Amino acid sequence: MTQKARVELYTDGACSGNPGPGGWAYILRHPASGSEVEDSGGDPQTTNNRMELQAVIEGLRALTRPSVVAIYSDSQYVLNGLKEWLDQWKGRGWRTAAKKPVKNEDLWRILDDMRTKHELDFHWVRGHNEHPENERCDQLAVAARDRAGGKML
Predict the structure, then answer these.
(1) CA distance 40 to 31
(2) 150 is catalytic
(3) Backbone phi, then psi, for 23, in 5-degree steps?
(4) Catalytic residue among 8, 52, 58, 133
(5) pLDDT digits over 125-149, tens only?
(6) In the prediction, which pLDDT does 153 show?
(7) 3-state SS record for 34-86
(8) Cα separation of 140 and 96, whole Å?
(9) Please, are residues 125 and 12 in contact by the beta-carbon 8 Å criterion?
(10) How far is Cα 115 from Cα 22, in angstroms, rounded to an integer?
(11) In the annotation, is 119 catalytic?
(12) 26, 71, 43, 47: which is closest to 145 by C-alpha?
């Protein structure tokens, strides 16, 4: 049996207004090979939480095989959702504890499927606190947000 590759996934989302134009970004690092990939994208009308979720989705989509993924994010919404809330929401028919529909269910369903393919490990980083990869993801996400919103860079 082949051992799964270990990778680091750094993510961030940005939004101007909530809702408003938004951007997502990730850095995917393969420590064994020393390779690193960055990507970003945007949406002209979205929310910050959707961009945080999209960043993780896009980073996981970039993987070509099942991996052990250390996810680094400043979004407690994303990390708590993946670690704690997702199974509870599913068990309640995609309802919160307050019996309300889960926000961003479409993206959570994608992540739910993806987490069966990879082993995920979660790490919260304080945003805007000089964490180099988080700062870089923030720069990429803000640039993608500005492009999505029609601002000139």
Answers:
(1) 21
(2) no
(3) -140, 155
(4) 52
(5) 987 778 899 999 999 999 999 999 8
(6) 46
(7) CEEEEEEEEEEEECHHHHHHHHHHHHHHCCCCCEEEEEEECCHHHHHHHHHHH
(8) 32
(9) no
(10) 24
(11) no
(12) 43
Cα separation, 35 vs 114, in Å, equals 22
The amino acid at 110: I
pLDDT at position 2 is 66
Look up residue 21 and give its amino acid. Answer: P
Structure tokens that stand for 30 in this block: 């393969």
Amino acid in the structure at residue 14: A
Place of tokens 């704690």: 84
Q: CA–CA separation, 79 vs 148, rounded Å?
A: 25
- d(CA 117, CA 136) in angstroms, rounded, equals 27
Query: For residue 142, which amino acid is it?
Result: V
Known catalytic residue at 59? no
Confirm whether 74 is a catalytic residue. yes
Question: Annotated catalytic, 36?
Answer: no
Distance CA 132, CA 138 (A): 10
123 is catalytic: no
